[in-house]
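pipeline/complex-builder :: batch 7 item 3
reading input block
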Amino acid sequence: MLSDAAPGLRVRALRKAYQDVVAVNGLDLEVARGECFGLLGPNGAGKTTTIEICEGLTAADSGEVEVLGMRWQRDAARLRQRLGIQLQETQLSDKLTVFETVRLFRSFFHQGPAPLAVIERVQMEEKRDARVGGLSGGQKQRLALACALVGDPELLFLDEPTTGLDPQARRQLWDLIEDFRRAGRTIVLTTHYMDEAEKLCDRVAIMDHGKTIALGTPRELIASIGIEHLVEFSADGVNALPLAGIQGIRHVRAENGGIRMQVTELHRAVPALLDELRRQGVPLTELRTHSASLEDVFVALTGRHLRDD
Amino acid sequence: MNRSWIDHPLAQLTLVRFYEFLREPEALFWVFIFPVLLAAGLGLAFRSRPADVLTVAATTPELARAMRQEKQLAVEQLPGAAASEELRTGKVALVAEPAPGGAVLYRYDDTNPEGRTARMLADAAIQRAAGRTDVVRSSDQLVREPGSRYIDFLIPGLLGMNLMGSAIWGMGFAIVDARRKNLMKRLIATPMPRAYYLLSFLLSRLGLLVAEVGLVVGFGAVVFGVPVRGSLGDLVALCVMGSLSFSALGLLIASRARTIEAASGLMNVTMMPMWIVSGVFFSSQRFPAVLQPAIRALPLTAAIDALRTNMLQGGGLGRVGPELAVLATWMVVSFAVAMKVFRWR
């Protein structure tokens, strides 16, 4: 079949405006088959609008969307059979059991595994007869994933799959998503967690104000800003000016009552920092270092953090 | 995978509707228990009682003795002033006192049916005691005909009200709730045919209808002897028609609303006037003639009139043509408009 050779998703010059807000402003994307692709960005960047246009739930103002080589205008019925979709914040019916819910969703698809097989796949066998209303947040998200998997989809859309979950529930969900990718299927997900994008995604598009501001593998993106490490410290009354002259320290700025520096050579920069503080006679109250992450890429590109909290 | 009919999306959607309804105790109460309680309460309050014994007063022992011959009278013998006081406060229906020349004077209120009855019974007893004999021999056979009592009028009214309430509430809340929780959007993201989604509401309504109608009609028949004179098949057809019509109306009410509050407001505004004017508890004929065409065009009026024609007069479907036309119009127009304006997300 021709469409099997086509990329998982191809988006060109996509635009969507709501009243006075431009949600998506000329977006281009291409996702290969078998790839896990992440749309990373802060709230309001246009991620959900983009993914819902790709899911055929929202009409674009202009631009082209091709999913598995097909278009919504022409092939909606065929396309729906081959996609798995998880929306942000869907409450499944509280009164139904896990099994009843999965069986309902399974009934809409021509092909796919039996309901019980899907329930096992998301590790909810023990909860099969439990009411949805009594499930934990993580279990509800796994059930939502089960409902997305019932049609044995070739392409899975996940909109913020782990938002609001505790760390253990997130890791559990990540494992399930990785299982799906290992089976050679395609995933497009949105997230505002950089660690999620780094862990799951082969490639990431960082979005801001409805546009892609960076695109590549997490490693490429981190390397592109030329920072290897970040050092943050607090020391009352420190004069930050001389710090910029130290070898390996690139960018110094005051933040949240402390100092944040970009560093290329950690092993030289830290002893030099400590020497300078001793010279100035100010005591160090806090010192943290970490490797540069996608968060730092976003900060470097926009001057803002992904999450304000 | 070998798929049976139960795996058909329409079967699954309808089944889920049933589960959701049966697992909601409040809904069960309003649909099944409440109408029966209402019928029981009103039926008891307005039940037809056997003719009561009337209390009357006499001011002399002779008159008292004469009236005591009549079993349907309870006679008190009182002095004149006390008897007048009892009459004034309604404790006795009539006072008999001697008048000049051996005559008898009855004092009573002729606007009170009990007073008029007491007058006839007392006079007959006193005349008989004084020696009057009946010229024609007579005997009684008591016939209490079901079909003309208040409870007979009430049961078809409650049935119609129940059809409307459960269809509109059942549709309205379920649809708005699914929209509010993003569940509707999640469903249309699957290959589910949208028509099946709406159809499943109608099918589950019809399934519950059997229980609803059976309960109210059965309760009326067993406890109060309310008749079903028309054919049972016609009655079922009328209920199905009414329920489909109200469901379409419910669909229209719920077609845009995003919140439960907005939907409840719309539902109450739609149903409240019909509860009052459509003849649930009292005849809609009591409203001025100028309003009658509008009242008759309402779906609840049409449903209740048709149900009464069937149950009380035994009229077939042919006799309720205009009512069926009104219901069909509401169904088609509401459904068409609802489809056009329905908000799927």
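note: Chain A touches chain B through 28 residues (CB under 8 Å).
queue -> next item
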